[in-house]
Amino acid sequence: xxxxxxxxxxxxxxxxxxxxVVLAERAGLSSKLITxxxxxxxxxxxxxxxxxxxxxxxxxxFFSGDDIEAPTGDNASFxxxxxxxxxxxxxxxxxxxxxxxFSDWIDKNxxxxxxxxxxxxxxxxxxxxxxxxxxxxxxxxxxxxxxxxLESKGIRVYSLSEETNQVNAFSCxxxxxxxxxxxxTQKSNEASRFDAAHELGHLVLHRHGExxxxxxxxxxNAFASALLMPKESIFAYASTCKTTxxxxxxxxxxxxxxxxxxxxLHKVGLLSEWVYxxxxxxxxxxxxxxxxxxxxxRENSQILQKVLTFTRDNGKSLQKIASELNLKRSDLVPYxxxxxxxxxxxxxxxxxxxxxxxxxxxVKN
Length: 365
Known about the structure:
The protein is α+β, with helices and mostly antiparallel strands.
């Protein structure tokens, strides 16, 4: 085990969204020293390391140990990539590295569902969505809980810890074998579901190729729309949906946003251009572009919920898990926000007991 690992200093700095200059100023060190530390040319003294740890909000022990693997800009697919700053991108990728650590701990202690994600590279989005539905035995029925579905197919789903509108969601294949999806759980459930379907689109469509640019984003959007609202289902249940009131009522069937349903109706030919525009304008006046009308309850995570409940019942708190990873509890909570019943109040962690669902096996060492 390395006594000081520059890889962890870089990740911690990027996680906090700091440049080397800003970190140096806040820690009372020179930016030249930070550069020397990160390039492994010089190791920080015990005093300097404490200054860095306090400034970055990580335990001193975090800066020793093996390298932390993190998603890269090459293999991570971001929504709204063009509006992100380099600092926001690096912070999100570093957050992914922390999520990898947490995920490794879960994998070590529990048997998770096997990975079953079809490779639809080169397919048209609509066709790829149907392949996924067929392989996952979904038929034409609405997807009741998309987070549960993704987890059941071995996809690791975490809350996106960045509190910014510029980072909606992102996904990646870790080492080309393990799929991850990070969701902005501060959005409406309908928007978050579409984000999840969009990222699934990247995972199945762009696994081996370019995953950035307007074209691939359009493909992922088309996949998400077809996955959540299959064409045959739309024709069967929404062929007479021609008004704003009907859209708002009917969207509940597929648990999608009013805007998403309106677009899909137009895309499959059920709404003329004029009617489509009129409904979009009326929905906009109702504020549907920024806040969902009559939103549905948020989806949660079965895996994270079960892991936290099991460990709690066996005397291990989230604080203890964080300590095993040389992290603070506050660095794990954001990955659970909106997905698992974790509430932080007065530095205490409360995890209400959820209903028992499915199977999650503990690994016996």
